[in-house]
Amino acid sequence: MPKAYSEDLRKRIVTAYRNGEGSYATIAKRFNVAKGTVVGYIKLEKETGTIKPRHRPGNTTVRKLNPEHFDNMDRWLSDNPSMTWVEMAQKLKEDYNVTINHRNVGRRMRERGWRRKRTGLAVRSKTT
C-alpha cells in the first residue's frame, strides 16, 4: 500500500476546493492526484474536521519473540515433536511471561521450517 500524501498537499487540495478554484476533476489534474483522492479529502474534512491521514492497520504489531525464544521453541519441538502450538504458547507464557496467540506461534514456527504431519508430530522441513 502506498504512503499517504503529505498534510501540506492535502491542505492545498482542500483549500483550492473551498476557494472554488475548480471541480474535483480540475483540482485532481492540477495536483496530479486521482479525482477520488480529492473527493476523499473533502469528505474526510467534513466528517472529522481534519485532513490528517487515518490510522492504517497492518504490520504494527510489537515483536514479542526474540532469538532466545525461537531457539528454545526449536529445542522444545525437537525434544517433544507432539507439542502443539497451544502448548507452546502456554509454555512461553509460563517461562517468559510472553502472551502470544497459538496461531501466531504456528505462523512463526512455519516460517522457521517446522511443519505438522498428519499424525500431529512436528518435523523440520528445512534448515534455518
- Beta-strand proportion: under 5%
Mean pLDDT comes to 87
Structural class: mainly alpha
The main β sheet shows up as: 2 strands, antiparallel
Head-to-tail CA distance between termini = 30 Å
Tally of helical segments: 6
Low-pLDDT parts are none
Global shape: rod-shaped
Question: How is this structure best described in words?
Answer:
The protein is mainly α and 128 residues long. It has 2 domains: 7-48; 67-124. It has 6 helices and 2 strands, in the order ααααααββ. A two-stranded antiparallel ribbon has the order 1-2. The longest helix is centred in the first third of the chain and has 14 residues, at 35-48.
Tell me the layout of helices and strands:
Layout: H1 7-18, H2 24-31, H3 35-48, H4 67-79, H5 85-96, H6 102-111, E1 114-116, E2 122-124
Antiparallel strand pairs: 1-2
Entry keywords:
128 residues; mainly alpha; 6 helices; 2 strands
Short description:
This protein is mainly alpha-helical and 128 residues long. It has 6 helices and 2 strands, in the order H-H-H-H-H-H-E-E.
